[in-house]
Amino acid sequence: MLLGAAITAAAIPVSTAVAQTSQRGQPKTPFGPKDFDKLRWLEGTWKATAPGEKTYYERFRFTNDSTIDITYYSDPSFATETGNGRVYLSVGRVYHTFGPGRWGATSVDSSGIYFVPQVNAQNSYSWAFQSPNSWTQTMRSGFSGRERVTIYTLERIKS
């Protein structure tokens, strides 16, 4: 996945949080299996595009009620794997890992999820449901006043 890529684009509104958030961006209210289940719309095979950015492909698969395995690809034939990630629920928190990076969710609901950096990461991002066959990933990187926003549109690839 191209977590570090960025272009200037308009921001998409992110849904309001189900969990209350603290000043540090970490949830005060723990998430549970019912919250995690609201992310079922992510399951499937996707093509990610953004103006001026390289297209990439990914596959989300629920392996149980608290884990989503993600495989990233650089080609539409899904022959060239470029990495793996995971979204998981642990002790009331939802995390996303990719390589050495880890992000924590500050909000989770049926319209999307918002992640903030925790370990070996500096960007924040949201995944927002658009329709059963489309969602957006809005990535924010940089510092205040120099923030860069990249918006990828992900379209379902029918098998």
List keywords for this structure.
single chain, mainly beta, 10-stranded antiparallel β-barrel, 3% helix, disordered N terminus
Characterization of the model:
Helices cover 3% and strands 50% of the residues. A hairpin with a 6-residue loop joins strand 1 (44-49) and strand 2 (56-64). The chain has one helix at 33-37; strands spanning 44-49, 56-64, 67-73, 81-90, 93-98, 101-109, 112-119, 124-131, 134-141, 148-156. It has a 10-stranded antiparallel β-barrel with strand order 1-2-3-4-5-6-7-8-9-10. It has 159 residues and is mostly beta strands. It is built from 1 helix and 10 strands, in the order H-E-E-E-E-E-E-E-E-E-E. The chain has a single domain (33-156), classed as Lipocalin. Residues 1-24 have low confidence and may be disordered. The radius of gyration is 15 Å and the shape is globular.
Topology overview:
Elements: H1 33-37, E1 44-49, E2 56-64, E3 67-73, E4 81-90, E5 93-98, E6 101-109, E7 112-119, E8 124-131, E9 134-141, E10 148-156
Antiparallel strand pairs: 1-2, 1-10, 2-3, 3-4, 4-5, 5-6, 6-7, 7-8, 8-9, 9-10
